[in-house]
What we know:
- The protein is mostly helical.
- The protein has helices at residues 3-61, 67-71.
- Helix content is 82%, strand content 0%.
- The chain starts with a helix and ends in a 7-residue tail after the last helix.
Amino acid sequence: xxxxxxxxxxxxxxxxxxxxxxxxxxxxxxxxxxxxxxxxxxxxxxxxxxxxxxxxxxxxxxxxxxxxxxxxxxxxxx
Length: 78
């Protein structure tokens, strides 16, 4: 019975070491994911800016319609 407590302590130490190792690995993965998320957020922000710029340029490039064209119905087709 003298061996049982030492075996239990060794098992606990191994379990703690395994948990610490997993925790360190998970911390590293979380840090990597956080870095990637930051990069993607910056890219999304840049894409939104570019999309607004394109929309503005598209609106500016289209000819302005006159009120007369909006009121007049299209000609009939025979």
